[in-house]
Amino acid sequence: MTSAPSLLLMGDSHIRYFAKAAAYDLLYPYQTDSLEVGGATAVGMRNPNSKTDAIGRFRRWVSDKDRDSEVLLHLGEVDCGYVIWYRSERYQEPVETQMRESLDAYFEFVDELLAAGFSRIIITGATLPTITDDDQVGEVVLARSSITASMIERTQLTLEYNRALAARASARGLSFVDISEDVLDPTTGVVSNRLRNPKAEDHHMHVPLAAAYWARRLLPHLEHAPAPAAEVHWMANRDTFLKGFSAHSARMPEELLVPVPKGGVVVAGEVVVREDYTLLQDVRFRGRQYPMIRVLPSRHFRRLA
CA-to-CA distance for 260 and 285, rounded, in angstroms? Predict the structure, then answer.
């Protein structure tokens, strides 16, 4: 029996989106292992005495991992949302200088991983800020209250940071993955309200939605992503839903639910059949494509062909 390919996840607390995507089976066929270091900064990767000891923890954790593993890195939210602004004011240096310091430190670690034998590294765009100018609650909000940069300024910096991440990744022949275009509200220029966490005090994105968006963008960059599957037709034997991932529909974000009436026929590629659901790709229903929909509850459908 062939073992599942390995995907190592390393980053700040926002790495949980990827871990959740794996838990939802959205990164099939990968076996994932993750290390989340809350508060980790890219610029802090140069400092072995940082409060989080991110660089030491990452080094120790990855030291005995299989070099054939694919590695995903997700850092930069704390840098763009707070540290770059704070250090710019403290050291009386331009924001651009501090951004470059952060990027340099980030890719020193990337180059260290490459030198250690990890050749398949994926760089991901830093999470866009969800803390608004009016937020008053939450530990992170209070901790970052000393900076005056507005949400739009922090968002623009993050977008610039991500463009620089993409360029540096490309220069090394590495993949870069980002969901900014999926979550940014073009009217406001900041992250869409639907991606904000339902808990006002939580600065993370709405985890199920973010997980689904990241999985969709990440899969084409994974070496062992499922190949295009032959089309299969299913007919609903009751009123039901197609879903973004396997969970009760009452707990599913609305945009990850597609109602299917009894007798409705769904066309999709079959990736893998689980006990309670079938994992899909390229879902079509009534002539419309649904790129965010991945799961069909098996008991609610009859396979036609």
Answer: 8
End-to-end CA distance of the chain: 28
Say whether both 101 and 71 belong to one domain.
Answer: yes
Question: Per the structure, how many domains does the chain have?
Answer: 2
More confident of the two residues 92 and 48: 92
298 and 210 in a common domain? no
pTM score, whole prediction: 0.94
- What is the maximum span of the chain, computed from C-alpha positions, in angstroms? 67
State the DSSP string of 266-280: EEEEEEEE-SSEEEE
Domain end: 221, 250, 271, which one? 221
Please report where in the chains the tokens 């089309």 appear, as a residue. 231
Residues 108 and 191 grouped into a single domain: yes
pLDDT digits (tens, 9 = 90+) for 90-146: 999 999 999 999 999 999 999 999 999 999 999 999 999 987 867 666 666 566 777
Single-letter amino acid code for the residue at 180: S
